[in-house]
Amino acid sequence: MREKIIERVDHTIPSPRSELISGIKAELPLMIAVIPFGMIYGILAIGVGIPASSAQAMSVILFAGSAQFVSAQLFGLGVPAGIIVATIVVVNLRHILYSASIAPYLKKLPNRWKWSLAYLLTDEAYAVTILQYRRGSSMGNKHWFFLGAGLTLWTTWQLSTAAGIFLGASIPTSWSLDFTLALTFIALVVPTLKDRASFGAALTAGVIAVLAFALPLKLGLLAASLIGILIGYSIEVRS
Amino acid sequence: MSIWLTIIIAGLLTYATRLSFIYLHGKVSIPDTLKRALRFVPPAVFTAIFLPELLVTEGMLNVSLGNGRLIAGLLAIIVAWRTKNVILTIVVGMLTLWVLQAMVS
Fold this sequence. Notes:
heterodimer; A: mainly alpha; 76% helix; B: mainly alpha; two-stranded antiparallel sheet; 74% helix
């Protein structure tokens, strides 16, 4: 009996080090999509005439792939800065949803952890970390998992965008490497659609996003997400 | 406004979106309804990101067998569902797209 209890404790609270390594391992497979995506961004940014230092600074300061793509295109078109800022903010509004979704798991952490992990809260880091938090009841040292996943993505993103910017060799668009982004999200979301409510949320959001793709500033994504969440919730409440 | 100023302002605002509820949690009360609804953030947002990539090509809705991204994406969905393997899903999807593109051209 006693051994059993000790064993359970060992299982429920892995050490910071082992959570960190788990986080790195969970994030690594996504890198086969992040690397080409980062390189394409770098090449695009240089191609539209953004100086190398600014292009790389976007990776460090914004650290948000799709927003960097959109803003590079807008810089290239000579769009006024205010509109570029507004566009980036709208494209990044989904992070508020991620922030709200992960906040309960981080509530006991000291501020320096909260402020640091917030910087690392990207699509890809959020996706693997929220799954980890929902697995098992104990928070344990899962913030180290988040840190491992986040730093893996951060490092890869900086290096791959730098490779695109400074090596500069162009990747033919016929390789369709941008498609790896869609495939990443398929790989992350499809296995989690196990109940009717999640499936309903996903299907609703997906269909609306397709129908609303013509809306400016990626507003379609935001509207679709919010309606999908609402539908998922109402299916859950009803059943 | 210089490009640097643009990046810094947009960066600060982006950081604010990320920090928002992580910072506010415990300081403002979040209704239970909202908490339960947040479970649906990943399926809703991620599907809203990837589905248009399969169905919208060159700004047009394209539901046909000639749409390589749709076929490759559907195959990737099956692989993801059956194997839960991230790398396999991405590799199968990309290879399928390349084969289909090679057949067309």
